[in-house]
Amino acid sequence: MILILAAALSSVLVSILLKNLKKKGYQPLQMIAWNYASASFLCFWWFQPDIQHISIQKTPWWLIVTLGLILPSIFLCLAKSLEYAGIVKTEVAQRLSVVLSLLAAYFFFHEQFNALKLWGIGLGIFAVLLVLFGQMSTSSNHQSRKAIFALLSVWCGYAAVDILLKYTSSLGLQFTLTLNLIFITAFILSISYLLVQKTQKWQLKSAIAGLILGVLNFSNIALYVKAHILLKDSPAIVFASMNILVVLLGIASGVILYKEKLKWPTTLGILFGISGVICLARAMAL
User: Sorted alphabetically, which PANTHER family does this protein's record hold (predicted)?
Assistant: First the structure.
């Protein structure tokens, strides 16, 4: 459980840093780009993927490039969602992206569903709708539109990454090797975009902050994977604990650090979201 708690803390700390540093004049795009530099190095050092024997012809490069584009884009959407909607709603949307991933698994990968999984998906979708409704009832029209778009981008974006990673693994490419290649591609594409754009001054502080973000971002992934390895007979416990802990830590940080108010739709959405995660975890355990 210590590994899962550390992974959840890393995830929430990424959100806290993104939210705080943008207010202090740090450049989100530069932080996101350098985040993938340290994440790439740590991924290679920790997992030691077999890059030497990679097949240039058989590797689905279009998938690697697609994920390399999507990841920094989602990170930017995450920063916007934290700014407009707050950390509580953003964490709920991010964690409930699993609902869309499971729907894709049913329609595209022909995964079998039982009653508990259907309940989990239904509760998850209802939870997201409540969170979006709560945003509409607490913001001006302009602010509300921005927040809803950002939340939906986070929800759909993280699901898209999960779906594409599952598809990539189904082609026979190792998870760790795929992840390393995606991080490297995301770094190259992000830096290339910044060089072409030429509208931002390079900031050393943003680069350092980005490298720290990369450490936290990778720690979240590495510790979560490690927990799955150590508790290989109880994947449902790891899945449920991680998602529920991130939501609870997100609530705590939002309420304590940023004085975010939990209106009734958001509170109900959180409760339904946690219930959905528990249903999905129980379905995995069957």
Answer: ACYL-MALONYL CONDENSING ENZYME-RELATED, SOLUTE CARRIER FAMILY 35 MEMBER G2-RELATED
